[in-house]
Amino acid sequence: MSTIEKAMERLAGKGAAPTPIDTGAGAKATALDRSPADTKVGDRPVHVARTTGHKAAVATGERLAIDPERMRQAGLIVPGEGKTRITEEFRRIKRPLLANVEGRSAAPIANRNLIMVTSALPGEGKSFVAINLAISIAMEMDRTVLLMDADVEKPSVARILDLPGRPGLMDLLVDPTLDIPDVLYDTTIPKLRIIGAGRSDDRSTELLSSTQMRRLMAELADRYPDRVIIFDSPPLLATTQSSVLAELAGQILVVVEAGQTPQSAVEEAVAELDPEKAISLVLNKQVLPSPGGAYGYGYYGQYGD
Ligand SMILES: Nc1ncnc2c1ncn2[C@@H]1O[C@H](COP(=O)(O)OP(=O)(O)OP(=O)(O)O)[C@@H](O)[C@H]1O
Ligand SMILES: [Mg+2]
User: Of 102, 124, 133, 166, which one has the fewest beta carbons inside 10 Å?
Assistant: First the structure.
């Protein structure tokens, strides 16, 4: 038994306002726009509170178009294409994760709807797995998925899916007037919503480990308990960026590049994680024998049904 297999065996089974004022239209509204905080509407004294409206317009109604051809080229699951190897692999990967989301784990898991996708080292396939997992779950009958690009130094979700730059996680962390729905976008894949990485910021490491980030994670877990939230995350080793994500996500999926990642790196990464979490490993890019005798470049999920 390899060390990774042993690690997996060890991990198996764990897991644990003010009164609204009808401003009416036209002249009346304009008058109120310019009114002081204490004013009158007709004969009635009223207090006028103000909110900024421009932010809500950021995301409202915009549906990001995801091109199926682009997905096909990137080797991603293409909804509506029926049974393919990749859809089957992710069907097997998502099952135990969804069982945990539904509360069917052996031990209760806090924030079980928050799933962090990470790896020991860069380039192991985190974004590939996070995107496919999100699409696969969105294809379930009654599952809404929120995919968040939390790898803000190397944002990939928008690049891989060829999405336009929009405000995202970093904007949420630096701008206190923004709320989650302001950066949450619908997509042309039904039930798949996306929060991108947003603006780049020199303070990304600090921001990702800030109180705002903790608050955001807690809010995501509370506000959307029925929604599966998948975080494409920075690698675990050689960066501290993923520590709050790892601390607050209920489930952590560690992507391991088959035949490449040293076992010591996987062990070191897994050893840093809280064993109370539901931790799973995925062996990615495994080379599988193809029917013709040659070897394909494939994907292999480490889960049974
Ligand atoms: N199972 C797979 N089959 C084929 N190609 C894959 C697979 N997994 C990942 N790749 C490819 O490997 C490269 C790295 O994958 P990806 O960007 O998902 O890794 P990452 O861990 O997110 O990297 P980074 O640390 O830079 O964010 C990409 O070109 C991706 O298309
Ligand atoms: Mg990535």
Answer: 102
